[in-house]
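Suppose you are handed a protein chain with no further information: no name, no annotation, nothing but its sequence. What can you learn? This example shows the usual starting point.
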Amino acid sequence: MEKQKEKVVLQAIEGGFITDDTAAMDATHFEARDQAPPKEEKPKPEPKKRGRKTKEEREQWLKDQVEKEENMPLYEKKIEAQLDVPLAALRSEVPTDPKWGVKKNSEGKNVFWFGYKAHLIVGTSSQYILDSLFSSGNLNDGKAAIPLLKGVHERFPELNLRHQTADAGYDFEPIYEQVHRMGQQSVIAYNKRNEGELLGYDKHFAPTCFREHSYRYDSFDSKYETLKYTRPKECSDCPLANEGICQKVYKQKITHDLRKYTAPARGSVAWKNIYKRRTAVERVNAYLKEFFQLNNVRYRTGERAKVHFDMVTLVYNASKLTADRINAQLNQEQVA
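A reasonable first move is to predict its three-dimensional structure. Written in structure tokens, the prediction is:
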């Protein structure tokens, strides 16, 4: 089924219907047909020994933690463990059993469901599904990003993608690293995690002048991977402009911190315009649920539900390809 989905995308690329320079990632949940298992009561943990561990106890504890981490399934490890794993292994080890999942709705309240997640990467202009991944409902969205990115990069080298967009749920350093390895740029919303204020910079990590006005993003040098910032507009009438206190130009390499420094720079008009394209994947999620029966799984077990998911995504792409071919033929007839 996955090979057939790949063939449809290749046909759309050959037909000139996929010419996107930006792709968007997102996940959506859907419920399982299976009955949720009864809640298991966990035994109470033994009380921890009070006081600081001895040197020998700490060394043994560290060894146990390393061994425990090594023996974990791939998708229970940290995301950076996926960077050097081949695509075939990444896809074969995805958990597919129905599990309880939780997410916050628009009101900030937790919503629970028992079932699965559909992870998609979509062309923002064509709205074709470039790659998809089916998983248990409890899999973190960020842990599906690297398999999706590697899938598109390895299967469709013909695509000239320049940007990868995603919401704050994908704001993890290994995802930025994977996009950078692919020679593309990340446009991902920043998720502040107990981080203090960065002195000398604004909330978008642009440098600020002596009077705390933000420097303006000017351009990106792809050869040296450097962002260029120019003086703030307030410098035109600033009494300190000619005192030699503030620099006229700031340059910052994005490799200094791929998460903070992106091309185009965070907060710039260009960055915001590219990020707006991310809504394409949300529309595709809605189409799959409303018109292609993604929300209506009729089979039990994750293996059968995955077949249902693969059929849904295959039919969606095939329908788009058919419609694009018909429209192209009608346009040719009108011109003739």
